[in-house]
């Protein structure tokens, strides 16, 4: 039996890189689509917020001298490219899928309307949410927390390159300790960077559980919806 019936999955743009330095690895897309099919067959309703860091990051644009707002809009459009690529992989696997965008690009995606988004989920369509919140200066972490609350998801899955939350960078420090479970207050007290401050505050204030796990290990999404031990749960 599944633990969660409606989930919001946050995917970073970097997760789509695979072994590439830039762009999208189709084998990663196909692997994600295959995992999502297994979850969909369990009757789980899935919303996805996707980043664009594999193509363009607003912060990087600002560091190069660009206007931050304009750079952030470019980053939002990068998330739309990723959303369309993921939609193609999901539909090729035989699943119904819709892309909704916080920026109006009606030729390729539906505008984000909360009530319509909920109906897509209720009709068992995989829902991909592109272009963040539609506003500059907000990350896709914040967009994920916001959409999870709007769509009444039971949990926010944050799929990353590491297998949970550690007390220090596990790449740099082999003795880093992984946490299996944390409260929001503990994460704050230990100054653990689970997600950006705005996203973290939203999740904490509205008691939205956040599960951080690795996307690299196939089957983790299914394990997560089943309530099996995977990653780090913050609640």
Explained architecture:
- It is a single chain.
- This protein has one domain (6-234): Carbamate kinase.
- A nine-stranded mixed sheet has the order 4-3-5-2-1-6-10-11-9, sandwiched between helices. A two-stranded antiparallel ribbon has the order 7-8.
- The protein starts with 5 loop residues before the first strand and ends with a strand.
- The protein has helices spanning 26-40, 58-63, 68-92, 114-122, 140-150, 184-189, 197-205, 220-226, and strands at 6-11, 45-50, 97-101, 110-111, 126-130, 155-160, 165-166, 178-179, 181-182, 210-214, 232-234.
- The longest helix has 25 residues, at 68-92.
- β1, α1 and β2 (45-50) form a beta-alpha-beta unit.
- The radius of gyration is 17 Å and the shape is globular.
- The protein has eight helices and eleven strands.
- By secondary structure, it is of the alpha/beta class.
- α1 crosses α3 and α5 (140-150) packs parallel to α7 (197-205).
Summed up, the domain count is: 1
User: Secondary-structure element sequence?
Assistant: EHEHHEEHEHEEEEHHEHE
- Can you count the beta strands? 11
Tell me about the largest β-sheet: 9 strands, mixed
Mean pLDDT over the residues: 95
The total of helices stands at: 8
Question: How does the overall form come out from the CA principal axes?
Answer: globular
Instruction: Give me the CATH architecture, please.
Output: 3-Layer(aba) Sandwich
- Helix-residue proportion: 25-40%
Q: Would you identify the CATH H-level superfamily?
A: Acetylglutamate kinase-like
Q: Uncertain spans, ≥5 residues at pLDDT below 50? A: none
Which fold name fills CATH's third level, the topology?
Carbamate kinase
**How are strands sequenced across the largest beta sheet?**
4-3-5-2-1-6-10-11-9
Going by helix content, strand content and strand pairing, the class is alpha/beta
Query: Ends: how far apart?
Result: 21 Å
Give me the Rg, rounded: 17 Å
Query: Per DSSP, what share of the residues sits in E-state strands of 2 or more residues?
Result: 15-25%
Please give the CATH class: Alpha Beta
